[in-house]
Amino acid sequence: MITIDDVKQARERVSPYLRRTPLLESETLSKRFGTKVYLKYELFQKTGSFKPRGAFNQILQLSEAQRAKGVVGVSGGNFAQGLAYAAQTLGIKAIICMPEFTPKNYINGTKSYGAEVHLAPTISEAFELSRKFEADGYASMHAWDNPYQMAGNGTAGLEIVEDLPEVTDVFISIGGGGLIAGNIVSLIANKPEVRIWGVETEGAETMNEALKAGKVVQYKPTSLARTLGAPYAAQDAFELCQKHLEELIVVSDQQAFDAQIYLLERTKVITELAASCTLAAAEKVKDRLGSHVLLLLCGGNANFDNMTDYREKLGAPTPL
């Protein structure tokens, strides 16, 4: 289990390579909720998501011999670009194994950061392919189930408590748990009374199913929020969520899409469903919130094709 010292050490490693993303109050949302609401714009991190925080931390703890060979990772989403960017910045080779159904914008973005991309028919076969590269000496990098990834991700939480020491509530989306695990550690260590709300979408309830079962379980994601689509939750993340979550809120794809359009129209940013779902979740519990509420907007790698697809599958957005 990672500790606050792990997160602080991660910040020392990764801060030269990362942006300190903005944290700003949204007047529109504050009026809507009747309390102060802030947005942590992690979608302005390089590559459009929080993933470089952990990717840099994973690579920087490797030996020189390991870096000389290169790294391999599996991702059909933001980790692919985050790892590719970190590897390119540090001057090492990166191989990314992706399922064939990965959206083209993710494949093209990953290639643009210099990674060598290999496609496999399914995500399980992508993992099998990655193991062949591991056998050849490439260091394996995991998108969520790795303590260095979690600790690196938790550096966002350090920024939150420094920039908003009055914070009472934080909404964080959950895929495999790497983001929320690191930030539970950094937030609770510095602000023990803060309430942390986990968020998932229907069809991406990896953590929710684990909490109901009392153990980590395998899960087949179906949600349109693809970057939340992990097949299982990390054990450490599961245990941290069991102990510290105020509540895990599940919203529908439609609610996440409605929130995505609202954020686009009112805050002028394009979020992923994996990020906009935090607004949909906050809406569900708005009568229970404290005085300083923060939504962690974890990623913004959505494009016109994605949003058109959502509209075709879900229908026109419903005004919030």
Question: Any chance you could write out the topology, listing elements then pairs?
Answer:
Elements: H1 4-14, E1 23-25, H2 27-33, E2 36-41, H3 51-60, H4 64-69, E3 71-74, H5 78-90, E4 94-99, H6 104-112, E5 116-120, H7 123-135, E6 139-141, H8 147-153, H9 155-163, E7 169-173, H10 178-190, E8 195-201, H11 206-213, H12 235-244, E9 245-251, H13 253-267, H14 273-284, E10 292-297, H15 304-314
Parallel strand pairs: 2-10, 3-4, 3-6, 4-5, 7-8, 7-10, 8-9
Antiparallel strand pairs: 1-2
Helix pairs in contact: 1-3, 1-8, 3-5, 3-8, 5-6, 8-10, 9-10, 10-12, 13-14
Descriptors:
320 residues, alpha/beta, Rossmann fold, 2 domains, four-stranded parallel β-sheet, 15 helices, 10 strands, 16% strand, globular
What can you see in these coordinates?
- The chain is an alpha/beta fold and 320 residues long.
- The chain folds into two domains: 4-50 and 148-314, 3-Layer(aba) Sandwich (Rossmann fold); 52-146, Rossmann fold (3-Layer(aba) Sandwich).
- It has helices at 4-14, 27-33, 51-60, 64-69, 78-90, 104-112, 123-135, 147-153, 155-163, 178-190, 206-213, 235-244, 253-267, 273-284, 304-314, and strands at residues 23-25, 36-41, 71-74, 94-99, 116-120, 139-141, 169-173, 195-201, 245-251, 292-297.
- A six-stranded mixed β-sheet has the order 1-2-10-7-8-9, sandwiched between helices. The protein has a four-stranded parallel β-sheet with strand order 5-4-3-6, with helices on both faces.
- The N and C termini lie far apart (39 Å).
- The model has no long low-confidence stretch (mean pLDDT 96).
